[in-house]
Amino acid sequence: MAISDIKEYAHLTDADVEALGVELDAIRRDIEASRGERDARYVRNTIRLQRSLEIGGRAVLFASRKRPAWLLGTGMLGAAKIIENMELGHNVMHGQWDWMNDPEIHSTSWEWDNTGPSAHWKQTHNYIHHKYTNVLGMDDDVGYGLLRVTRDQRWKPFNIGNPVYNLLLQLFFEYGVAAQHLELGKVAKGRIPREEFVQKRREVLEKIGKQVAKDYVVYPALTGPAWKSTLTANLVANMIRNVWTNTVIFCGHFPDGAEKFTKADLDGETQGQWYLRQMLGSANFEAGPVMEFMSGNLCYQIEHHLFPDLPSNRLREIKVRVLELAEKYDLPYTTGSIGKQYLLSWRTIAKLSLPNKYLSATADDAPETASEKKFAGATGGLLTVDPDTGKRRGLRTAIAESKKRKGIRGLIAKIGK
């Protein structure tokens, strides 16, 4: 049930893990040393594009009683909101552009176009999620306290609604983000002081009030006779942003191969072990330049989790070097088309709405849930070198051999019948 010994699961020795960490540290130093004008120009051009799309979209909506204008204005506004949340808000608040010392583009001053206050999000996302990525009982992003996404989470009748909850979460994702920091489950159990909860609730309600007033009162009112069509355009634009954001995030965290971990992995965790956990707990999806940009470069989720505060426009080149390390240490590099990763995430959410007794595979060797026990009885153990090729034989090879063994056992079982 989840990985409790990450080195054993990864088929790496202590020395190998630390060597991997040294090589990843070198990547960080190289990127930090090469940050400069082209990176600053990238983020400033992104801000100009985003603001142009928003201003243009809101201007077009003055004619939104005509269907073509409604469609154009809604599309422009939806794109502007996606860019603001994904490529700007998310990345700026990670501190990716703090090195510029520009007070307008700084993690301490950016307030994004979202119902969740930036200060709340930086705590739940930057600190908790990125430090404790996929650690059960520590990272609330493992199902967001709503969805069952691993067999390590005990099944409850509530989980039958998994697909419905996810659909609603997609449509209203910004409100899920706003509610996450409130930790309502802990509040219900009395584990959060009431004064603290009241303060957080007040801040969330204030931010929601500002967002609702802006999108559903002020801007519709400004368009006069077109207020009703403008209101619906703003609602749809927000949902476009919500669904896309949810899709990108889920493709990076819940497809097969994005592993889960136990608190035991945190005991004495070194920088190298933290890097390794990020590589094993994240997933990418393949994207061209446009989708890359519109995903906030989170199509490179593995690289983002390794270096969350490095500029997003540099993740493409970082990927090349991370792939080389995955090959060198025989580690899996989880990626696929966005359609594939998205469907795998939905498959996990749908099937885990059922109790384990109705599911195939085991809690240690299922597509969405694995542990070091999946290799019990297999030969190899820690990382070795193939005597014929001289290549390392690590986790990637072990997973391939495990699948081969399962296929043979399945074939034997069929023949036996």
Folded structure, characterized:
- The protein has 417 residues and is mainly α.
- Helices cover 58% and strands 2% of the residues.
- A two-stranded antiparallel sheet has the order 1-2. A two-stranded antiparallel ribbon has the order 3-4.
- Helix 2 (14-34) packs antiparallel against helix 14 (315-328) and helix 9 (194-222) crosses helix 10 (227-253).
- The mean pLDDT is 92.
SSE order and pairing:
Elements: H1 6-10, H2 14-34, H3 37-60, H4 67-93, H5 118-131, H6 162-171, H7 173-180, H8 184-188, H9 194-222, H10 227-253, H11 271-281, H12 289-294, H13 301-306, H14 315-328, H15 338-351, E1 365-366, E2 369-370, E3 384-385, E4 392-393, H16 395-416
Helix pairs in contact: 2-11, 2-14, 3-4, 4-10, 9-10, 10-15
Give the low-pLDDT segments: none
Secondary structure: number of strands: 4
Mean pLDDT: 92
Fraction of residues in H or I helices: 55-70%
What is the tally of helical segments?
Answer: 16
The radius of gyration is 23 Å
List SSEs in N-to-C order. Answer: HHHHHHHHHHHHHHHEEEEH
What is the topology, as strand order, of the major beta sheet? 1-2
N-to-C terminal Cα separation, in Å? 31 Å
Into which percentage range does the β-strand content fall? under 5%
Largest sheet: 2 strands, antiparallel
Structural class: mainly alpha
The gross shape turns out to be globular
